[in-house]
Amino acid sequence: MIPVLLVIGLQLPYPLVHGRARDVLTVATVVVFSLVSLGYAATRRGPAYAAVLLGVVGVGGFAVEVLGVHTGVPFGSYRYDGGLGPEVFAVPVVIGLAWVMMAHPCVVVAERVATGTVGRVMAATAGLAGWDVFLDPQMVDARHWHWSDPSPHLPGVARVPLSNLGGWLLVATVFSAVLVAASRRRPDRYGEGPLVVLWVWVWLSSALAALVFFGHPAVAAWGFAAMGVVGVPLLARR
């Protein structure tokens, strides 16, 4: 649980800091969170699975972002505005790790609420794409990226287009299918429990932060509902 507490400890001060300090905290959180996810992936499911997580989701996620920035596919026309560290092909390197940090916890959660390959892929997709309903408005507010034409959009979420959610659903489905297929053995139900804790923390704390600290009740409501598709059944079962 110590690595999990470290991730939570890094996220707690985010609403209270600003400027360069917030940028550094954001990058540090992504790096540490991704290392925690990779660590659990390697120790509980083996190095082959961890290699898929890093290679397909990490490198693949970065490649999709490069495609998106330069073509508008599949998220819509957007650009990064700085503050997230070194960039390659106009995309911060840390973005690939952001996909890694949540993709595996979403698979772990999906295995606790769904049975069968298709059900688990759908649940993991919902968990990962639902997280982005919180993420993108927050990062746009922090001036890390922006869309050239953020319409149409969810009611109350004016600066993030629906095309972004569609892109996330597409990419999350592919990554979730790969990870579910790569998980060849049933995981230790308790061995990856801390990742479930982290996923629930991200869900509930993001809703609270959007509502209380960032003044975005619509983001809080939409994000809570989106991740809640998986989160409510998860809490009900536990």
Structure in words:
This protein is mainly α and about 240 residues long. The chain has one domain (about 1-235). It is built from eight helices and four strands. A two-stranded antiparallel sheet has the order 1-4. The chain has a two-stranded antiparallel ribbon with strand order 2-3. Strand 2 and strand 3 (about 90) form a beta hairpin. Helix 2 (about 20-45) crosses helix 4 (about 95-115). The longest helix has 27 residues, at about 20-45. It is globular and about 40 Å long. It starts with a helix and ends with a helix.
Task: Give a quick precis of the structure.
The protein is mostly helical and 238 residues long.
Q: Report the sheet with the most strands, covering strand number, pairing sense and barrel closure.
A: 2 strands, antiparallel
What is the ordering of alpha helices and beta strands? HHHEEEHHEHHH
Strand order of the largest sheet: 1-4
Distance between the termini: 18 Å
Can you tell me the overall shape?
globular
